[in-house]
Amino acid sequence: MKKAILAFTLITSLCSTSLPVFAASNPETTISHFEANSLITSDGSYWVWGGQQSVPTQVHGIEDAVESFKSQLVEREDGSMVFVKRDPYLPTAITVHPISGLRNVTSVHASWNEFLATDHEGKVFVIPFAGISTAASPIDAASPVAGLEQVKKIASFYEVDEQYNHTSRWIFLKKDGTVWRNTSGLDGFEQVSSLSGIIDIEENLALKEDGTVWSFPLRPASSNHPVKVEELPPIRKIATDERSYAAIDQEGKLWFWGATLTGASDATQVHHQTAPVQLTGIRNVANAYFIERSLIVLTGDQHLYATSINREKMPADAKFELLASGVSKVHYGTRHMIMQKIDGTLWGWGVNKNAQLGLGDYEFMYNKPMPLQPPVTIVLNGKPVALTNGVIIRNGQTFIPLRSIFEQLEATPTWNATNRTVTIERKKEGSTPIKILVNYTTGKISVNDQLVTLANDPFIVQGISYLPLRFISESLGAKVEWMKEQRKIVITM
Protein backbone atom coordinates (compact mmCIF):
# COMPACT_ATOMS: atom_id res chain seq x y z
CA MET A 1 0.00 0.00 0.00
CA LYS A 2 2.80 2.44 0.88
CA LYS A 3 4.43 1.81 -2.49
CA ALA A 4 1.16 2.55 -4.27
CA ILE A 5 0.67 5.74 -2.31
CA LEU A 6 4.20 6.88 -2.98
CA ALA A 7 3.90 6.20 -6.68
CA PHE A 8 0.88 8.45 -6.92
CA THR A 9 2.05 11.23 -4.58
CA LEU A 10 4.97 12.60 -6.51
CA ILE A 11 5.27 16.29 -5.64
CA THR A 12 7.09 18.89 -7.65
CA SER A 13 8.22 22.36 -6.69
CA LEU A 14 8.09 25.78 -8.23
CA CYS A 15 11.47 27.48 -8.47
CA SER A 16 11.34 30.90 -6.86
CA THR A 17 12.65 32.46 -10.06
CA SER A 18 9.66 31.22 -12.09
CA LEU A 19 6.83 32.40 -9.84
CA PRO A 20 6.52 34.81 -6.90
CA VAL A 21 6.93 33.09 -3.55
CA PHE A 22 3.77 32.89 -1.45
CA ALA A 23 5.25 33.78 1.93
CA ALA A 24 3.51 32.83 5.17
CA SER A 25 3.48 36.53 6.11
CA ASN A 26 1.83 37.59 2.84
CA PRO A 27 -0.90 40.14 3.74
CA GLU A 28 -3.09 38.72 0.96
CA THR A 29 -3.68 35.66 3.11
CA THR A 30 -7.15 35.96 4.67
CA ILE A 31 -8.11 33.48 7.37
CA SER A 32 -11.73 33.96 8.47
CA HIS A 33 -11.75 31.12 11.03
CA PHE A 34 -9.31 28.55 12.39
CA GLU A 35 -8.95 25.77 14.92
CA ALA A 36 -6.07 23.62 16.14
CA ASN A 37 -6.09 21.51 12.93
CA SER A 38 -8.23 23.36 10.40
CA LEU A 39 -8.94 26.75 8.88
CA ILE A 40 -11.47 28.53 6.70
CA THR A 41 -10.47 31.19 4.18
CA SER A 42 -12.53 34.23 3.23
CA ASP A 43 -13.79 32.52 0.05
CA GLY A 44 -15.45 29.77 2.13
CA SER A 45 -12.95 26.98 1.42
CA TYR A 46 -12.10 24.56 4.21
CA TRP A 47 -8.59 23.23 4.91
CA VAL A 48 -7.22 20.56 7.28
CA TRP A 49 -3.82 19.30 8.36
CA GLY A 50 -2.26 16.69 10.63
CA GLY A 51 -1.74 12.96 10.13
CA GLN A 52 -1.23 12.27 6.42
CA GLN A 53 -1.71 15.97 5.56
CA SER A 54 1.48 17.69 6.68
CA VAL A 55 0.27 21.15 5.56
CA PRO A 56 -3.16 22.81 5.07
CA THR A 57 -4.95 20.76 2.43
CA GLN A 58 -8.23 21.85 0.86
CA VAL A 59 -11.28 19.66 1.43
CA HIS A 60 -13.19 19.73 -1.84
CA GLY A 61 -16.96 19.64 -1.60
CA ILE A 62 -17.05 22.51 0.91
CA GLU A 63 -17.02 25.93 -0.75
CA ASP A 64 -19.24 27.91 1.66
CA ALA A 65 -17.84 27.18 5.13
CA VAL A 66 -18.38 29.80 7.85
CA GLU A 67 -17.29 27.97 11.01
CA SER A 68 -15.85 24.64 12.12
CA PHE A 69 -15.97 22.68 15.35
CA LYS A 70 -13.35 20.17 16.56
CA SER A 71 -11.86 20.26 13.04
CA GLN A 72 -14.44 17.74 11.81
CA LEU A 73 -17.83 19.45 11.91
CA VAL A 74 -18.29 22.34 9.49
CA GLU A 75 -21.17 24.81 9.29
CA ARG A 76 -22.17 26.17 5.89
CA GLU A 77 -23.67 29.55 5.02
CA ASP A 78 -27.21 28.17 5.13
CA GLY A 79 -26.70 26.82 8.67
CA SER A 80 -26.44 23.17 7.60
CA MET A 81 -23.68 20.95 8.96
CA VAL A 82 -21.29 18.44 7.38
CA PHE A 83 -18.89 15.93 8.90
CA VAL A 84 -15.37 15.70 7.43
CA LYS A 85 -14.15 12.11 7.64
CA ARG A 86 -10.40 11.56 7.55
CA ASP A 87 -8.47 8.32 7.68
CA PRO A 88 -5.09 8.76 9.40
CA TYR A 89 -3.56 5.98 7.29
CA LEU A 90 -4.91 6.78 3.81
CA PRO A 91 -4.16 10.29 2.53
CA THR A 92 -6.79 10.06 -0.21
CA ALA A 93 -9.63 9.30 2.19
CA ILE A 94 -11.03 12.76 2.98
CA THR A 95 -14.79 12.71 2.44
CA VAL A 96 -17.65 15.06 3.27
CA HIS A 97 -20.93 13.81 4.75
CA PRO A 98 -24.04 16.01 5.30
CA ILE A 99 -25.53 15.72 8.80
CA SER A 100 -29.32 15.74 8.91
CA GLY A 101 -31.24 17.02 11.91
CA LEU A 102 -28.67 19.62 12.96
CA ARG A 103 -28.48 23.32 12.03
CA ASN A 104 -27.11 26.59 13.41
CA VAL A 105 -24.65 25.05 15.86
CA THR A 106 -23.26 27.29 18.60
CA SER A 107 -20.91 24.89 20.41
CA VAL A 108 -19.58 21.35 20.19
CA HIS A 109 -18.01 19.14 22.83
CA ALA A 110 -16.25 15.92 21.88
CA SER A 111 -15.70 12.72 23.80
CA TRP A 112 -14.01 9.57 22.50
CA ASN A 113 -16.99 8.21 20.58
CA GLU A 114 -19.50 11.03 20.23
CA PHE A 115 -20.03 14.74 19.72
CA LEU A 116 -22.53 16.75 21.74
CA ALA A 117 -23.66 19.92 19.99
CA THR A 118 -25.90 22.83 20.97
CA ASP A 119 -27.88 24.96 18.54
CA HIS A 120 -28.95 28.61 18.81
CA GLU A 121 -32.12 27.58 20.71
CA GLY A 122 -30.10 25.74 23.34
CA LYS A 123 -31.15 22.25 22.26
CA VAL A 124 -28.60 19.46 22.64
CA PHE A 125 -27.85 16.86 19.95
CA VAL A 126 -25.70 13.74 20.03
CA ILE A 127 -23.62 12.73 17.02
CA PRO A 128 -22.11 9.24 17.44
CA PHE A 129 -18.97 8.19 15.61
CA ALA A 130 -16.15 5.66 15.96
CA GLY A 131 -13.52 7.80 17.65
CA ILE A 132 -11.87 11.11 16.78
CA SER A 133 -8.52 9.56 15.89
CA THR A 134 -9.85 7.04 13.38
CA ALA A 135 -13.23 8.45 12.30
CA ALA A 136 -13.85 4.96 10.95
CA SER A 137 -17.50 5.42 10.00
CA PRO A 138 -19.31 8.37 8.37
CA ILE A 139 -21.82 10.43 10.29
CA ASP A 140 -25.12 11.14 8.58
CA ALA A 141 -27.57 12.14 11.34
CA ALA A 142 -27.79 13.90 14.69
CA SER A 143 -30.29 12.92 17.39
CA PRO A 144 -31.83 15.34 19.91
CA VAL A 145 -31.11 14.63 23.58
CA ALA A 146 -34.36 14.55 25.55
CA GLY A 147 -34.56 16.34 28.89
CA LEU A 148 -32.26 19.24 28.09
CA GLU A 149 -33.05 22.72 26.78
CA GLN A 150 -31.67 26.26 26.89
CA VAL A 151 -28.11 24.86 27.16
CA LYS A 152 -25.33 27.40 26.72
CA LYS A 153 -22.20 25.26 27.12
CA ILE A 154 -21.16 21.65 27.65
CA ALA A 155 -18.18 20.23 29.57
CA SER A 156 -17.13 16.76 30.63
CA PHE A 157 -14.66 14.93 32.82
CA TYR A 158 -14.01 11.43 34.19
CA GLU A 159 -14.84 10.37 37.73
CA VAL A 160 -12.57 7.64 39.10
CA ASP A 161 -13.64 5.34 41.94
CA GLU A 162 -11.46 3.42 44.37
CA GLN A 163 -11.16 0.53 41.91
CA TYR A 164 -10.03 3.00 39.20
CA ASN A 165 -13.22 2.55 37.21
CA HIS A 166 -13.86 5.57 34.99
CA THR A 167 -17.30 7.14 34.59
CA SER A 168 -17.89 9.82 31.99
CA ARG A 169 -19.59 12.84 33.57
CA TRP A 170 -21.33 15.40 31.37
CA ILE A 171 -21.92 18.92 32.70
CA PHE A 172 -24.41 21.34 31.09
CA LEU A 173 -24.53 25.09 31.70
CA LYS A 174 -27.94 26.57 30.92
CA LYS A 175 -28.64 30.12 29.86
CA ASP A 176 -30.27 30.86 33.25
CA GLY A 177 -26.98 30.10 35.06
CA THR A 178 -28.02 26.70 36.41
CA VAL A 179 -25.86 23.61 36.00
CA TRP A 180 -27.07 20.11 35.17
CA ARG A 181 -25.26 16.78 34.99
CA ASN A 182 -26.02 13.34 33.61
CA THR A 183 -27.04 10.56 35.96
CA SER A 184 -26.97 7.67 33.47
CA GLY A 185 -25.30 8.11 30.11
CA LEU A 186 -27.44 10.57 28.17
CA ASP A 187 -30.74 9.18 29.44
CA GLY A 188 -31.09 11.03 32.75
CA PHE A 189 -30.14 14.47 34.09
CA GLU A 190 -30.31 16.31 37.38
CA GLN A 191 -29.71 19.88 38.46
CA VAL A 192 -26.67 20.58 40.61
CA SER A 193 -28.51 22.34 43.44
CA SER A 194 -25.43 23.99 44.94
CA LEU A 195 -24.59 25.81 41.72
CA SER A 196 -26.50 28.87 40.50
CA GLY A 197 -25.48 32.09 38.83
CA ILE A 198 -22.81 30.19 36.89
CA ILE A 199 -21.23 32.07 33.97
CA ASP A 200 -18.70 29.48 32.73
CA ILE A 201 -17.74 25.82 33.01
CA GLU A 202 -14.46 24.14 32.03
CA GLU A 203 -14.31 20.36 32.50
CA ASN A 204 -14.78 19.92 36.28
CA LEU A 205 -14.62 23.64 37.16
CA ALA A 206 -17.48 26.13 37.40
CA LEU A 207 -17.23 29.93 37.72
CA LYS A 208 -19.97 31.92 39.48
CA GLU A 209 -20.95 35.47 38.66
CA ASP A 210 -19.71 36.49 42.13
CA GLY A 211 -16.19 35.40 41.13
CA THR A 212 -16.05 32.20 43.18
CA VAL A 213 -14.72 28.98 41.64
CA TRP A 214 -16.25 25.56 42.30
CA SER A 215 -14.73 22.16 41.57
CA PHE A 216 -16.34 18.76 40.98
CA PRO A 217 -14.22 16.05 42.67
CA LEU A 218 -12.51 13.70 40.23
CA ARG A 219 -12.53 10.96 42.87
CA PRO A 220 -15.80 11.38 44.74
CA ALA A 221 -16.06 9.59 48.08
CA SER A 222 -19.02 10.46 50.32
CA SER A 223 -20.26 13.15 47.94
CA ASN A 224 -19.83 14.08 44.29
CA HIS A 225 -21.10 17.63 44.73
CA PRO A 226 -18.83 20.55 43.80
CA VAL A 227 -16.89 22.38 46.49
CA LYS A 228 -15.70 25.96 46.57
CA VAL A 229 -12.02 26.55 45.83
CA GLU A 230 -10.82 28.56 48.80
CA GLU A 231 -8.12 31.23 49.02
CA LEU A 232 -8.96 32.78 45.65
CA PRO A 233 -9.86 36.46 45.08
CA PRO A 234 -12.83 37.24 42.77
CA ILE A 235 -12.11 35.42 39.50
CA ARG A 236 -13.20 36.36 35.97
CA LYS A 237 -11.77 33.44 33.92
CA ILE A 238 -10.87 29.79 34.51
CA ALA A 239 -8.75 27.19 32.67
CA THR A 240 -7.99 23.51 33.26
CA ASP A 241 -6.81 20.28 31.68
CA GLU A 242 -8.83 18.41 34.35
CA ARG A 243 -5.89 17.95 36.73
CA SER A 244 -4.12 21.31 36.64
CA TYR A 245 -6.03 24.54 37.20
CA ALA A 246 -5.55 28.24 36.52
CA ALA A 247 -7.68 31.26 37.30
CA ILE A 248 -7.44 34.91 36.29
CA ASP A 249 -8.67 37.43 38.85
CA GLN A 250 -10.31 40.79 38.30
CA GLU A 251 -6.92 42.53 38.29
CA GLY A 252 -5.40 40.27 35.65
CA LYS A 253 -3.33 38.25 38.11
CA LEU A 254 -2.82 34.53 37.52
CA TRP A 255 -3.44 31.78 40.09
CA PHE A 256 -2.42 28.12 39.88
CA TRP A 257 -3.30 24.95 41.78
CA GLY A 258 -3.68 21.24 41.09
CA ALA A 259 -1.26 18.84 39.43
CA THR A 260 2.36 19.27 38.44
CA LEU A 261 4.29 16.44 36.80
CA THR A 262 7.72 14.85 36.85
CA GLY A 263 9.10 11.87 34.94
CA ALA A 264 7.92 10.70 31.55
CA SER A 265 5.59 8.18 29.93
CA ASP A 266 4.68 5.32 32.31
CA ALA A 267 7.07 6.70 34.92
CA THR A 268 5.20 10.02 35.21
CA GLN A 269 4.69 11.17 38.78
CA VAL A 270 1.74 13.44 39.65
CA HIS A 271 2.20 15.97 42.46
CA HIS A 272 -0.87 17.68 43.93
CA GLN A 273 -0.87 21.31 45.03
CA THR A 274 -4.21 21.96 46.72
CA ALA A 275 -3.79 25.58 47.75
CA PRO A 276 -3.90 28.19 44.93
CA VAL A 277 -0.71 30.22 44.52
CA GLN A 278 -0.46 33.57 42.75
CA LEU A 279 2.17 33.48 40.01
CA THR A 280 3.97 36.79 40.41
CA GLY A 281 6.05 36.47 37.23
CA ILE A 282 3.16 37.41 34.96
CA ARG A 283 0.51 40.17 34.96
CA ASN A 284 -2.24 41.64 32.78
CA VAL A 285 -3.37 38.10 31.94
CA ALA A 286 -6.22 37.74 29.42
CA ASN A 287 -6.28 33.96 28.83
CA ALA A 288 -4.55 30.83 30.06
CA TYR A 289 -4.18 27.33 28.53
CA PHE A 290 -2.61 24.02 29.54
CA ILE A 291 -0.68 22.43 26.64
CA GLU A 292 1.92 19.63 26.76
CA ARG A 293 3.04 20.15 30.37
CA SER A 294 3.13 23.91 29.93
CA LEU A 295 0.97 26.72 31.23
CA ILE A 296 0.50 29.15 28.33
CA VAL A 297 -0.59 32.72 29.02
CA LEU A 298 -1.89 35.40 26.66
CA THR A 299 -1.66 38.90 28.09
CA GLY A 300 -3.82 41.92 27.41
CA ASP A 301 -1.04 43.51 25.35
CA GLN A 302 -1.04 40.45 23.03
CA HIS A 303 2.13 38.77 24.29
CA LEU A 304 2.21 34.98 24.64
CA TYR A 305 4.22 33.40 27.47
CA ALA A 306 4.89 29.88 28.77
CA THR A 307 6.02 28.30 32.01
CA SER A 308 6.49 24.61 32.72
CA ILE A 309 4.31 22.45 34.98
CA ASN A 310 6.93 19.71 34.64
CA ARG A 311 8.16 20.14 38.21
CA GLU A 312 7.39 18.87 41.71
CA LYS A 313 5.77 22.14 42.80
CA MET A 314 4.77 25.34 41.06
CA PRO A 315 6.61 28.22 42.78
CA ALA A 316 5.06 31.66 43.13
CA ASP A 317 7.99 33.18 41.25
CA ALA A 318 7.83 30.76 38.29
CA LYS A 319 9.58 32.25 35.26
CA PHE A 320 7.59 32.86 32.10
CA GLU A 321 9.28 32.71 28.70
CA LEU A 322 8.08 35.02 25.92
CA LEU A 323 6.94 32.88 22.97
CA ALA A 324 5.48 35.49 20.63
CA SER A 325 4.19 39.05 20.40
CA GLY A 326 1.25 40.49 18.49
CA VAL A 327 -0.94 37.43 19.15
CA SER A 328 -4.68 38.04 18.81
CA LYS A 329 -6.15 34.54 19.23
CA VAL A 330 -5.18 31.01 20.25
CA HIS A 331 -6.71 27.58 19.55
CA TYR A 332 -5.12 24.51 21.08
CA GLY A 333 -5.10 20.73 21.35
CA THR A 334 -3.68 18.63 24.16
CA ARG A 335 -0.11 18.83 22.81
CA HIS A 336 0.05 21.84 20.48
CA MET A 337 -1.46 25.21 19.72
CA ILE A 338 -2.12 27.39 16.69
CA MET A 339 -2.01 31.14 17.22
CA GLN A 340 -3.12 33.98 14.97
CA LYS A 341 -1.13 37.18 14.95
CA ILE A 342 -2.58 40.63 14.37
CA ASP A 343 -1.34 40.52 10.75
CA GLY A 344 -3.65 37.53 10.14
CA THR A 345 -0.93 34.87 9.85
CA LEU A 346 -1.08 31.56 11.73
CA TRP A 347 1.77 30.11 13.77
CA GLY A 348 2.18 26.76 15.53
CA TRP A 349 3.93 25.66 18.72
CA GLY A 350 4.32 22.34 20.53
CA VAL A 351 4.39 18.68 19.59
CA ASN A 352 4.44 18.07 15.83
CA LYS A 353 5.08 14.32 15.48
CA ASN A 354 1.79 13.92 13.57
CA ALA A 355 2.17 17.19 11.64
CA GLN A 356 -0.16 18.99 14.07
CA LEU A 357 1.53 22.30 13.31
CA GLY A 358 0.99 22.19 9.54
CA LEU A 359 4.63 22.97 8.78
CA GLY A 360 5.27 20.35 6.11
CA ASP A 361 7.43 18.12 8.30
CA TYR A 362 7.18 15.64 11.18
CA GLU A 363 9.75 16.99 13.61
CA PHE A 364 8.63 15.86 17.07
CA MET A 365 8.62 19.20 18.87
CA TYR A 366 8.96 22.93 18.20
CA ASN A 367 9.84 25.02 21.24
CA LYS A 368 9.52 28.25 19.27
CA PRO A 369 6.45 29.29 17.24
CA MET A 370 6.76 28.51 13.55
CA PRO A 371 4.68 29.96 10.66
CA LEU A 372 1.96 27.64 9.43
CA GLN A 373 2.15 26.83 5.73
CA PRO A 374 -0.42 29.01 3.89
CA PRO A 375 -3.36 27.53 1.97
CA VAL A 376 -2.80 27.61 -1.81
CA THR A 377 -5.18 26.24 -4.45
CA ILE A 378 -4.03 24.38 -7.58
CA VAL A 379 -6.00 24.71 -10.82
CA LEU A 380 -5.22 22.52 -13.85
CA ASN A 381 -6.80 23.37 -17.22
CA GLY A 382 -9.48 25.43 -15.49
CA LYS A 383 -10.46 22.83 -12.89
CA PRO A 384 -9.46 22.77 -9.18
CA VAL A 385 -7.24 19.83 -8.33
CA ALA A 386 -7.99 17.70 -5.26
CA LEU A 387 -4.65 17.07 -3.59
CA THR A 388 -3.68 14.44 -1.04
CA ASN A 389 -1.36 16.99 0.58
CA GLY A 390 -1.31 20.77 0.25
CA VAL A 391 1.26 23.19 -1.14
CA ILE A 392 4.51 23.44 0.82
CA ILE A 393 6.74 26.52 0.89
CA ARG A 394 10.25 25.72 2.03
CA ASN A 395 13.58 27.53 1.72
CA GLY A 396 12.03 30.25 -0.43
CA GLN A 397 10.51 27.80 -2.92
CA THR A 398 6.98 26.53 -3.43
CA PHE A 399 6.44 22.78 -3.65
CA ILE A 400 3.26 21.54 -5.28
CA PRO A 401 1.75 18.05 -5.06
CA LEU A 402 0.87 16.71 -8.47
CA ARG A 403 -0.56 13.32 -7.57
CA SER A 404 -3.60 13.63 -9.83
CA ILE A 405 -2.04 16.10 -12.28
CA PHE A 406 0.44 13.83 -14.05
CA GLU A 407 -2.21 11.79 -15.85
CA GLN A 408 -3.88 14.99 -17.07
CA LEU A 409 -0.47 16.11 -18.28
CA GLU A 410 -0.36 12.78 -20.13
CA ALA A 411 2.58 11.61 -18.05
CA THR A 412 2.81 8.50 -15.87
CA PRO A 413 4.95 8.25 -12.71
CA THR A 414 6.35 4.90 -11.55
CA TRP A 415 8.08 4.33 -8.21
CA ASN A 416 10.84 1.77 -7.73
CA ALA A 417 11.16 1.18 -4.00
CA THR A 418 14.26 -0.99 -4.32
CA ASN A 419 16.31 1.65 -6.13
CA ARG A 420 14.47 4.65 -4.64
CA THR A 421 13.81 6.09 -8.07
CA VAL A 422 10.83 7.67 -9.79
CA THR A 423 10.36 7.44 -13.54
CA ILE A 424 8.01 9.91 -15.25
CA GLU A 425 7.13 9.03 -18.83
CA ARG A 426 5.01 10.66 -21.50
CA LYS A 427 4.41 9.07 -24.87
CA LYS A 428 2.29 11.40 -26.96
CA GLU A 429 1.55 10.75 -30.59
CA GLY A 430 3.20 13.26 -32.86
CA SER A 431 5.76 14.41 -30.27
CA THR A 432 9.07 13.20 -28.89
CA PRO A 433 8.66 10.73 -26.00
CA ILE A 434 9.82 12.11 -22.66
CA LYS A 435 11.36 10.07 -19.85
CA ILE A 436 12.40 11.74 -16.59
CA LEU A 437 14.34 9.65 -14.08
CA VAL A 438 14.84 10.86 -10.49
CA ASN A 439 17.20 9.03 -8.14
CA TYR A 440 16.46 9.88 -4.51
CA THR A 441 19.59 8.14 -3.28
CA THR A 442 22.11 10.03 -5.39
CA GLY A 443 20.00 13.12 -6.09
CA LYS A 444 20.65 12.79 -9.83
CA ILE A 445 17.99 13.64 -12.42
CA SER A 446 17.99 12.86 -16.12
CA VAL A 447 15.72 13.73 -19.04
CA ASN A 448 15.87 11.25 -21.93
CA ASP A 449 19.11 9.91 -20.42
CA GLN A 450 20.71 13.39 -20.26
CA LEU A 451 21.75 14.52 -16.76
CA VAL A 452 20.12 17.73 -15.52
CA THR A 453 21.46 19.97 -12.75
CA LEU A 454 18.86 21.54 -10.44
CA ALA A 455 19.26 24.26 -7.83
CA ASN A 456 17.92 21.90 -5.13
CA ASP A 457 18.26 18.15 -4.82
CA PRO A 458 15.05 16.08 -4.79
CA PHE A 459 13.93 14.77 -1.41
CA ILE A 460 11.27 12.65 0.25
CA VAL A 461 9.19 13.50 3.34
CA GLN A 462 6.84 10.93 4.89
CA GLY A 463 6.75 8.88 1.69
CA ILE A 464 6.10 11.85 -0.61
CA SER A 465 8.63 12.86 -3.30
CA TYR A 466 9.46 16.45 -4.25
CA LEU A 467 10.81 17.98 -7.48
CA PRO A 468 10.92 21.46 -9.08
CA LEU A 469 7.71 22.22 -10.98
CA ARG A 470 9.51 24.60 -13.29
CA PHE A 471 11.68 21.73 -14.44
CA ILE A 472 8.70 19.39 -14.89
CA SER A 473 6.50 21.99 -16.60
CA GLU A 474 9.23 22.95 -19.06
CA SER A 475 9.95 19.29 -19.77
CA LEU A 476 6.27 18.43 -20.36
CA GLY A 477 5.28 21.72 -22.00
CA ALA A 478 2.93 23.07 -19.31
CA LYS A 479 2.35 26.76 -18.57
CA VAL A 480 2.31 27.85 -14.93
CA GLU A 481 0.81 31.09 -13.62
CA TRP A 482 0.74 32.46 -10.07
CA MET A 483 -2.45 34.40 -9.12
CA LYS A 484 -1.31 36.12 -5.95
CA GLU A 485 -4.55 37.75 -4.77
CA GLN A 486 -6.54 34.54 -5.20
CA ARG A 487 -3.81 32.31 -3.76
CA LYS A 488 -3.93 30.11 -6.83
CA ILE A 489 -1.36 28.37 -9.00
CA VAL A 490 -2.81 27.80 -12.44
CA ILE A 491 -1.34 25.10 -14.68
CA THR A 492 -2.37 24.98 -18.33
CA MET A 493 -1.50 22.54 -21.08
Describe the structure.
- The chain has 493 residues and is mainly beta.
- The chain has a domain at 377-492: Copper Amine Oxidase, Chain A, domain 1 (2-Layer Sandwich).
- Helix content is 3%, strand content 50%.
- The protein contains two helices and 46 strands.
- The strands form eleven sheets. It has a five-stranded mixed sheet with strand order 36-37-1-44-43. The chain has a five-stranded antiparallel sheet with strand order 38-39-40-41-42.
- Strand 23 (244-249) and strand 24 (254-262) form a beta hairpin.
- It is elongated.
- Mean pLDDT is 86; it is low at 1-29 and 130-136.
What fraction of residues sit in β-strands? over 45%
CATH homology-level superfamily of the domain at 377-492: Copper amine oxidase-like, N-terminal domain
Q: Give, in spatial order, the strands making up the sheet with the most strands.
A: 36-37-1-44-43
Tally of DSSP β-strands: 46
CATH architecture of the domain at 377-492: 2-Layer Sandwich
CATH topology of the domain at 377-492: Copper Amine Oxidase, Chain A, domain 1
What would you call the shape?
Answer: elongated
> Mind summarizing the main beta sheet?
5 strands, mixed
The poorly predicted ranges are 1-29, 130-136
Structural class: mainly beta
